[in-house]
């Protein structure tokens, strides 16, 4: 099962439209948390997806843990959840120029996390198909990045000095 989540603040029709189009050619169920506003206005056009307007924390956790891969916006909460549960995560950053967010912080986030194990960035919606077709996507890990380890080392040295 593929679990898609757009977060709780804003709709993300570019992501959900793309997944709905891909679902016809993917032999795998796609469950999508889309928010209540999006469900109300677009549900009739997203017939290839199992739509969930909102989820309780327990429902979110169960779907996350049972999914083969997670597809989402570049939200920090989703990235941390992928690391927590050791799931492959494909992120499609929201773009300010497309009216998907207030600024381009999700592009900046994607640039910062793209080198982390298990975080796979779709810079364009058209990149999703190839990423989803990969049978062996690396899973996110709790491993610390080299920059994180360097920061901890510098803080330790400062404290001990």
Features:
single chain, 161 residues, alpha/beta, Rossmann fold, 6-stranded parallel sheet, 7 helices, 6 strands, 13% strand, globular
In short:
The chain is α/β, with parallel strands linked by helices and 161 residues long. The chain is built from seven helices and six strands, in the order E-H-E-H-E-H-E-H-E-H-E-H-H. It has one domain (2-160): 3-Layer(aba) Sandwich (Rossmann fold), CATH 3.40.50.2000.
CATH topology: Rossmann fold
Strand content: 5-15%
Structural class: alpha/beta
Shape: globular
Distance between the terminal alpha carbons, to the nearest Å?
51 Å
Low-confidence regions: none
CATH architecture: 3-Layer(aba) Sandwich
Radius of gyration: 17 Å
Q: What does the main sheet amount to? A: 6 strands, parallel
Number of helices: 7
How much helicity do the residues have?
40-55%
Strand order in the sheet with the most strands:
3-2-1-4-5-6
Reading the helices and strands in chain order gives: EHEHEHEHEHEHH
Quaternary class: single chain
What is the total tally of β strands? 6
Mean pLDDT: 88
Instruction: Give the CATH superfamily.
Output: Glycogen Phosphorylase B
Instruction: Tell me the number of structural domains.
Output: 1
């Amino acid at each position: 099962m593929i679990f898609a989540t757009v977060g709780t603040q804003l709709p993300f029709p570019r992501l959900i439209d793309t997944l709905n189009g891909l679902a016809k050619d993917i032999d795998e169920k796609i469950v999508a948390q889309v928010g209540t506003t999006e469900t109300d206005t677009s549900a009739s056009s997203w017939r290839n997806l199992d739509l969930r307007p909102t989820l309780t924390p327990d429902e979110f956790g169960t779907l996350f843990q049972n999914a083969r891969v997670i597809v989402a916006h570049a939200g920090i909460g989703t990235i941390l959840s992928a690391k927590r549960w050791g799931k492959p995560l494909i992120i499609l950053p929201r773009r300010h120029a497309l009216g998907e967010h207030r600024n381009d912080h999700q592009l900046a986030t994607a640039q910062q996390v793209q080198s982390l194990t298990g975080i796979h960035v779709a810079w364009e919606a058209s990149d999703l198909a190839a990423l989803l077709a990969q049978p062996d996507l690396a899973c996110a890990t709790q491993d610390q990045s080299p920059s994180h380890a360097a920061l901890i080392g510098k803080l330790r040295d400062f404290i001990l000095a």
